[in-house]
Amino acid sequence: MQLTAACLPPPENYAAPDFQVPARACDSHCHVTPEDFLNTVPDASYEPAPAPPAELRRLRRSIRFERSVVVQASVYGKDNRAVEQALRAEPQVLRGVVVGDAETTDAQLDAWHAMGVRGMRFIMSGQLGGTVDLNDLKVLAPKLADRGWHAEILPREDQWPSLKSTLEQLPCTLVVDHLGGLSLGAQSSEAERVLSSLLSTGRVWVKLIGYRLSADLRDPRIARRAQRLYSEAPTRMVWGTDWPHVGFSVEQDAGVLLNALASWFDHDASAIERILASNPEELFDFPRAAVRRDPVDPIIVTGTPQRRN
Predict the structure, then answer these.
(1) What is the pLDDT of residues 96-106, one digit of tens each?
(2) In what order do the strands lie in the sheet with 173-176?
């Protein structure tokens, strides 16, 4: 896996899904980096290439998805305007995950909720630029819980044991990114045991995104981890493209990543439907309604959100 500070633009084409993509399929983790948005934090760990909402729509059409969750890119710190812009343009098919801190007001949280935000991202210190402190998470967790939001986290592998008690006591739902970010070398580790323990609480979810853990998407160790996590909490697993794949010097194909996911579960239609449709619909509070396709506006969803507006 080769990483770089200067990012590649989105590819021209994507591999087609090699399985039947379920209705209401949702890309549960992607970013937008508009061409005219250059307000990155001083300690940014990469330089984004333009990946505007129009390109995200093209991605969805290519891999036959109907919904996306736009996660605040770390390089923008607490300036969430890129996410807000995307949500305003497509409120029925997008949800958002933003970055805030202990000073974020209730009024701001409510305004974000009305836009379609359903989570807040916390990147532990020492990983990427634009981080917020663990104390911010402790302050905000009750407010997130009150609104039905989740906290998205990805501790370093060595942080999991020391964070266990704190994470167990937080009142909000937790979403763990990138299969926990745990190395693939060890068969079992203390960090993996902590993650399993947290899953047993019933309020922890995992994003089954594995391409940053190994250059080989068919690495059996990734498949085994994804299968094990799914077996422990099948209704709390989701998947995302992580588009536009910031930090890579080699072009990534979201369609190839999607097909790898299907292969991890032997193309089991029930598991794939949960991971791509039913589970994200619940986690991100999408309308539970039929999705109809239109030749002009490809995705139109009708209905109302499940939770508080």
Answers:
(1) 999 999 999 99
(2) 26-30, 67-71, 94-98, 117-122, 150-153, 173-176, 204-207, 237-238
